[in-house]
Amino acid sequence: MAFELPFSSKTPPLIGLDIGSSSVKIVELSQSGGAMRLERYAIEPLPRGAVVDGNIDKIDVVAEAVKRAWRRSGTRIKNVAMALPASAVITKRIALPANLREEELEMQVESEANQYIPFALDEVSLDFQVLGPIPNSPDDVEVLIAASRKEKVEDRMAVAQAAGLKPVVVDVESYAMRAALERVIEQLPNGGEGLVIAVFYIGANTTSVTVMHDGEAIYEREQPFGGQQLTGDIARAYGIPVEEAEQRKRSGDLPANYESDVLRPFIDTAVTEITRALQFFFTSTPYTRVDQIMLVGGSAVLTGLPDAVMERAQVPTSVVSPFKGMEISAAVREKQLRLDAPALLTPCGLAMRRFDA
C-alpha cells in the first residue's frame, strides 16, 4: 500500500529512506537470479526536536542528515521510497463490485473515502489497493483505502528534494516493516504456517507490537516506551548531556556499574512493557497463545533483553535481522550490521519496493 506519486509509472531503481525520530536510515538492495543482496546502508543520527511524533519540525536539519547518510552509504541511486508513520495515515477496508473498471474504481473509492476521512478530499493524498476477492461474496473485492493530510506527504517529499533526491513512492511505515517481516517469516519451517508471531519494534520513543498469523497482521498496538528512556537514564545517572549519553550508549563507553545500575532496570521495564502488551493481545482477541516473539528496533540488541523476555513470557524469543538469508555486499561491515540490522526493518521493506512487479 502506498501513496504512489504521479511520476512513478514503473518502479525505477530506488533506495529505502526511513526518517525516524532519532535518526535517518538508508538501505539499498539489489536482486540477481531471485536472490536479494544488501548492497549498502547508512544510519545518521538526528538532533532532538528535528522530528517529533512523526512530524518533521525542521526540514532543513533533516535534509542535511539525509544528505550525509546518502553520501556515507556510497549509493548513487537518487530515487527514494519513503514512508509515513501509521499515526499519520487513515486506512479503511471496503467492499466494492469486482467488475469495475479502473476509472470507476477510483470514483467509487473517492466517494467512499468521503465517509471515513475527517478532512476535505482536496486536503488529502489518497491511495487504494485491491486486496482480492471476498470469501462468500463472489461479486465483490476487498479494497484498502489509505489517506493522509497532504502536508505530511509534502514534508517528507520536501526533505528528500532538499537533499538532492527524488521521492518516487510514499508508503506507510507499518506496511513497509511488514513486507520485510514477511520475508523473514517465510524462512521459518513450513513458512511459519499456523504460527502466532508477536513482533516488538522497540523504537526511540515508542514500542509497537504487531502480531502476525499466516501472513495477516491480526493485532497492532503502540505504547509510549523506547530507547530514549535509557538515554535519559544514562544522562541522569552520570550527569552528562542527553546527546553525549546517546553517543556513549551507542559506543558502549560507559562506567563499570552501567550494566547493573542503569541497563538492568531498563531491561526489567522493557520486559514488563512487552508482557503487558501480550496480556492486552490475549484479552482483546480470541487468541490464547503466542508461538514466537521477534524483537526489532534499535534497542532490540541490548545485552540480556531477549533472554529476559523469553524467561518472563515463556515464549521462544529472538532478535531479527531483515537481511536474514540475503547476500551481503563486501562494502558492508558485517560486525556493525549485526548491531544495526534490527533497526533497519522499515528502510529494508521500502528498498524492497524496487522489485515490485
Structure summary:
The protein is α/β, with parallel strands linked by helices and 357 residues long.
Topology:
Elements: E1 2-4, E2 15-19, E3 23-32, E4 35-45, E5 51-52, E6 55-56, H1 59-73, E7 79-84, E8 90-97, H2 102-116, E9 124-134, E10 137-149, H3 150-162, E11 166-172, H4 173-185, E12 196-202, E13 207-213, E14 216-223, H5 227-238, H6 242-251, H7 258-284, E15 292-296, H8 305-313, E16 317-319, E17 327-328, H9 334-340, H10 345-351
Parallel strand pairs: 2-7, 4-17, 7-11, 12-15, 15-16
Antiparallel strand pairs: 1-11, 2-3, 3-4, 5-6, 8-10, 9-10, 12-13, 13-14
Helix pairs in contact: 1-3, 4-10, 5-6, 5-7, 7-8
Profile the largest sheet: 7 strands, mixed
First and last CA, distance: 13 Å
Large-scale geometry: globular
Give Rg in angstroms: 21 Å
